[in-house]
Structure formats: structure tokens, C-alpha cells
Amino acid sequence: MGSIVLVARLVLADVRRHQAQAAMLLLAVTVATATMALGLSLRSVSEALYEQTRTATAGPDLVALSGETGPAVTSALTELAGSPGVAAHHGPYRIVYADLTTRDATSSRVVVHGFAEKPAAVNRPLVTSGQWIRPGGTVLERGFATALHVGVGDRVTIAGRPYPVVGIAVTAATSIYPGASQIGPYGGPSDYSGLAWMTRSDARALASSHDLPVTLAVDLELRDPAATQAFRDAHHDSTVRINFRSWQFTAQQDLAMLKGSRPILVVGSWLLSFLAITGVAALAAGRAVQQTRRAGLLKAVGAGPGLIATVLLTEYLALALAGDALGLLVARLTAPAIASPTASRIGDAAGPTGATVVTATVLAVAVAVLSTLRPTLRAMRTATVTALTATPHQPRHRPHLTALSALLPTPLLLGLRLTARRPGRALLQACSTATTVIAIVALLTMHAQQERGYGLNGSPVLPNLRGEHDRRLMLAVAILLIALAVVNTITFTWTTAVEARANMAIARTLGATPGQVSAGLSIAQLLPGLPGAVLGVPLGSGLLSLFAARNAVEAPSSWLLAAVLATLLATAALTALPARLAARRPVARALSAETA
Amino acid sequence: MNVSRAAVRACGLVRTHGEGQSRVRAVDEVDLEVPEGQMLAVMGPSGCGKSTLLHLLGGLERPTDGQVWVAGRRIDTLSERALARMRRRSVGFVFQAFHLMEELSASENVELPALLAGRSRRQARRRAGLLLERVGLADRARHLPSQLSGGQRQRVAVARALVNDPLVVLADEPTGNLDTAATLDVLRIFEELRTAGQTFVIVTHDERVAATADRLVSMRDGMFVDDTRLAGSTTTGLGGLGGLIGLEG
């Protein structure tokens, strides 16, 4: 108990002394775990939303559709509804294929379901605003209405006939917008369509007035909802062609909208974790001497290796676990919006699954351990007396780089020599820059894609929601990545400046100007950033190609070149302030501190 | 007072540290002129302001009041950039803690000021080679500071201070970290340089060092309390050092 209290007090004291570092670790882990938890939760959240909608709307287990009409089809569907395995049914009902135009001239394909004014036992759309259908009025599916920016009381034109929108509703019988058309006219291929409901008589009148294509459907509730495949196999009719859509299929179709979201979030979380590790590792390396002295002090007063490791690692682990909890909470709160981009489903998402919690926690612990294990082990292994008088690790002599730098102007000479002092940190800076460029390349490539809109004939007047959703997610992930990379760049510059404080002070006594020292510190970040930025382009393109569609186009080279240049310019700008602050430190004070 | 012939000149120099009741006048109304070719030793107890005075003369710190001239140019009003250029051309520093760059060899440390002054790599290397030979370390040119003794490190620092042919060398306790043998090595080099006309301002606790100077200034509480010309040193350069060796013997 005493040891636990001691560790807690030491950890709290250390966190208070290094609040900025603690905040950075907390933020980085929160962002990484939230993104990963979201990516891993999308499927379960989407399924949960479908399931809740299905429960709320008495969603059918099977929808049987025929592209043909006529007595034989009606008879076949009616016979199907009376089968022994069917517990309840709704229909047969008409599905009319038409065009819908709003008052602001936005047009889209629409499938109109002719329903009874009184809800049936199966497939009872849930009215979320307004009221259910009445003669002369139409109810729009919520995802469709949201995309059209249409609400209750607005008027829409369907196949040239005006209808007031009397209600907005959701259903689990069809896929989410724009997948309402489960089969196309006459059983052919379907197009992006929204869903509207009318009374049976209005649907019949609509179809006959313009001789519009019509299909028939019946909604079935099975005695065994899981046995949809067995029911289909048992009711294969060779005379009438009937298509079945099971609830499992519809739930799966919901995920099609999220096809691009999962890799964006999961790969994004890897990159965010990587940046978190690089940033925290740089900070931990900067504190290595202090940690070693602390370990020496603990050893001197009788602490064993276990207690020392606990004290040194607990701070990072505790912060990482706090970040993990925060990340999971963020994922829990944002998951419904991200997993349901169309408003076609209702309900709340359950919390992340056990597997997601475990994976996110492993990630958080990995960030903490990977970034701090090396300095911790070094501190533990150092002999007590040596640890108490620990000094910064001396950089290696690099005669070739030193000779090369002698040929360069002073800022480059200083920058190259600073880079050579800490090659590990230079590598981290290169990786951080490459990660930033990977994110930018992904963002630019996604914006370069040509997409078919959801309007009539692929018109972009109704945007492609899947593409929009993916781009929004990619933008959010890219912003997080760039934000972490910015923090890393400032951290690297400041840590480099602090470690090289004495050397830079010496250089100033020898005649280097503050401007040259400041430029040297910036260049020390830019030099590794340059190959990182250049490598980021093929790495980003390669990573995207793993998930991209076959017909995906690459971003124009001019965009990519601009991204590389912008990244380097941003790095220069970001390093300028900490470098300038470091270079302005009085020389005499820096030298005195070194001597002390 | 002939300003043009003074390597370094200070007038009414004041430097205070701290605020309020903890305010300390580290250098208090100091007037000083060091003619070219003179070796000036500044002595005094710890904390009397010797090092601060040296920093003010080299432009590493700015005076609270008063003026400083180096090579006839007033430097207390210069920008940091101009001060850096002035140091490149006119001032060489030697510190008690050597302040060598640990990741650079002896030769590379000596080359650095020459490179900062815009000399080519070849010129810098040739000059560094000559100076290392002059301080007796030609065979240690490729050694890192960690592979050199304290005396050798200080000789590298002296070579580095001289690489741009400065008008004045400012040395802060140059023998403070050295044993007797190393001290004698460094003093021998200073003596040779003084004979060659190099101007020095040396801050020291060590009377053996002070004995090699042309002139000795004593400091206490930030002020000069004594200013003595040391005749033996001015007449024969090796006299002081010879006396020193005699004392040691």
C-alpha cells in the first residue's frame, strides 16, 4: 500500500511539473484511440442502427419483388404470403418508378410504394415528423427528404403531378438512401433512387397516368427470421421470376455506404498512433537525463528495479489509459453520426464492443510503452552513482558530414551539424513529415475523384453522399494528423534547441549571428523533412491504391508538388518561432548554465 | 586617452543583475583602456564581477550603463548581428570550461570560427593545422575533446580563439580547470603570443597567470581597486614565466 501511495505521489508530482507533455500525450492517445475505435465500431454501429430501425418499423424478414406485373405475379406473391413459414405479411403492393422534382428544381429518381392508410402488421414505416399518408399527399423517406432539403408542408412534383409532403418516415424494408430501388423497372438494374409513399389509389393513378414502370412486392415476416435463405430455397418458382431481399442483405447494404470509411479511420488511427509515438518519444528522450538521475536517486534510497520501472512508466501508462478512456467516449458519442450518414436509420449506438475496447487499449499502452521504454530501461540499467551524475548522451563524431557541412553557408553548416547530432530524431522528423504528406495526398486524391451524383442521370445537384462522407472523414483525419505533426515539429525543434543550447551559445561566441543560429535550427528540421515529404507522395499513393476503386484517378502531379512545397514551407514557418526564441537566449547565461 | 590605439576601451561601465532589494551591481562604474599588444590580467575574489566584465567587453552581455569600444568601434549599441560579426573579426574567447564542441575533432573545433567568418574549407583547415602545431597539438588534430587531457583541450580552445587573428583574446579563468603542468603549457603559449603582440584580457584567480601579464587590475564588488604595471613582464616576455617556473621549483 505504501508503495502504491509513493508511486502515485511521485507520478502526480511529475505530471504537475510537465503539464504540457502530459497534455500532449493525453491528446495524442485520445485522438488515436477515438479514430481506431470509430473505425472498428462502424460495422456494429451500423448493424445496431439497422436493428433498431427494424424493430421500430416492424421490418420484414424478407421482401419478395417481381419486375413483372399481372395476375400471375400477384397470385405467386399472394401464394408466397400464405406459405407455412410466413407468420405475417404486407402486400402485395405497387412500386412505381418516377422522377421527383422539388420546388427549387432538384430532381431525382424516386420509387413510390403504394401503401394502405392504416399501418399493416409488417413494414410499418415510422413517421418521424408530420403524419402518415393520406389521399393526395406523399410521405418521403427521411434520408431522401434530408438530401432534398424538403420538409413537411413542402410540395414536390412526382411524374409531373404536384403532391404536398405530409410526413417524413423511416423504414427497414429498403436499403438506406439512395438504395431504395431494390430492383429496377421491369426487374432491370436499379439506379440511385429515393423512396416515397402514397396511398394505394394514388400510386395506381400515378402509374397509369404516365404509363410508368411498375413492380410488385410483398413484405414477409417469417416464423424463423434467421431462416431467410432456407425460405428462398424452398420457394423458387420457375414460372414467375421473384427476387428476394432478406433483412440480412439490407443490413449489409447499409454498410456499403461505409465501405471507404473504415479504412480511412483504421489506417488513419495507425498513422495517428505513429505520430503520437514519435512526438512522445522525442519528449521522453529530452527528459532521459532527468529520468536517469531520478532512477539513480530512487536506487540510492533503496528502491528496487520493479519500483523504479513502475515509477518511470506509470506516468505515461496512466496518461495513455486516461486518453484511451477519453477516446472511447468520443468514439461512442460520434459513432451514430459517422455510421449513419444518410438519416435513413434511427436509434442510438451501443458502446464499443469488448474487442474494440481491448484493441484501443492495447494501442494506447503501445504508444506509452514504445515511446518511453528505451529511456526507462537505460535509466534502470545505469549504475547508481553514474545515474546521479548523468549527462546528456554525447553525439557521435561524423567526420564526413562535418567536412561536407564546411562547404556550406553558415545556416546550412549549423543545420546539418545539428541534424547529425541526433540522427534518431531526424528520422522521427522525416517520418512525421512523411505521415503529413500521406494524409494530404489522400485528401487531394479523394478530391480528384469524379463521382456520379444522386440527381437525375448522375447529376451532382444531389451530391454523392458516400463520397461526401468519405471526404469529410478524410478531412477530419487529415486535420488531426496535421495537428499532431505540427505539435511534433514544434516539439522536435524545441528539444533540438534545448539540447544544442550550449553548442549554439559557443557558436555565437565564435561569431554566429542569432539569425544564423535560428536558421540553423529550422534547417535542422527541414533537412530530414525534405526526404520525408518527397517519400510521403509515393507512400500516400501506394497506401491509397490498396483501398481505392479500380477506376480511381490519381491527383494531378501539380497538386502533389504543391503539397510537398506547402508542407516544407509550413515546417519552416513552424520551426521559426521556437528556433528564434532559442536563438535569442543570452549567450553568457547559456554558457554559465552549461558550466554549472 | 587615444581611442584609436586602444584594442578595448570601457567608460563608466555598469552591469546590474536582479531586481529590487536583490539588485546587485556586478560591474560598477568601471573605466578601462587596453592598448594593442598589452596583456591585462584582472584579479579578484569570486563574484567580484570579473567574468561579467569580460562578457561585457566581448559583447556577450549588454551593459546597464556606460560604453564599450572594441577596435575603436562602440559596441554596446550594436545589434546582436553586428556584435556577432564584431566577435568574428576582433575577439577570441578562451573559457575555463573550454566549451569545445564534443562531437567535433580538435581540428574541426579550431576550423569552426574560420568557417563562420566565411573562409573556405581549405583555408580554415590550413589555418587550423598551423595553430594546432603552434600549440603543440598537431598530432592530436583528429582527436575528439573527450580523448584529450584538460590542458590539451584548453590549448585547442586557445588555437580556436586565434584562428581569425583577433585583435584581442578574452580569457576567462583559462587555467582554472588545469593542473600545474597544463597551466604551464598554456602560459607558455600565452607568453609567446604576447611577445608576438597579441592583446589579452585575462580574468583569473591564479597569481601565476597574473604574473605573466603586463598589467594587473584588481577588482572587488564590481569596481577596480588597483591598477598595476608589471615591469618584469613588459621588459622581458619570459621573465614572468621564468619567475613562475622558479616559484614552482
TrEMBL record, chain A:
In terms of superkingdom, the source organism counts as Bacteria
Q: Classify the protein's membrane topology as the record does.
A: Multi-pass membrane protein
The alphabetized UniProt keywords are: Cell membrane, Membrane, Transmembrane, Transmembrane helix
All copies of domain ABC3 transporter permease C-terminal, residue ranges: 268-382, 476-586
Which GO molecular function annotations are given, in alphabetical order? transmembrane transporter activity
Q: Which InterPro entries match?
A: ABC3_permease_C, MacB_PCD, Macrolide_Exporter_MacB
Where the record annotates domain MacB-like periplasmic core, the positions are 25-234
Where is it localised? Answer: Cell membrane
Main localization category: membrane
This entry carries the following GO cellular component terms, namely:
plasma membrane
Keyword check for Amino-acid biosynthesis: no
Assigned protein family: Belongs to the ABC-4 integral membrane protein family.
Q: What is the recorded name of this protein?
A: FtsX-like permease family protein
Q: Whose protein is this, by species? A: Nonomuraea phyllanthi
From TrEMBL, chain B:
- Keyword ATP-binding annotated: yes
One GO MF annotation is:
ATP hydrolysis activity
| Domain of life from the UniProt record | Bacteria
Keywords annotated in UniProt: ATP-binding, Nucleotide-binding, Transport
Q: Which InterPro entries match?
A: AAA+_ATPase (IPR003593), ABC_transporter-like_ATP-bd (IPR003439), ABC_transporter-like_CS (IPR017871), ABC_transpr_LolD-like (IPR015854), MacB-like_ATP-bd (IPR017911), P-loop_NTPase (IPR027417)
Gene3D superfamilies per record: P-loop containing nucleotide triphosphate hydrolases
GO cellular component, alphabetical, reads: membrane protein complex; plasma membrane
Cite the PROSITE patterns for this sequence: ABC_TRANSPORTER_1, ABC_TRANSPORTER_2
Name one matching Pfam family: ABC_tran
| Cited PANTHER family | ABC TRANSPORTER RELATED, IMPORT ATP-BINDING PROTEIN
Protein name, entry field: ATP-binding cassette domain-containing protein
Organism expressing this protein natively? Nonomuraea phyllanthi
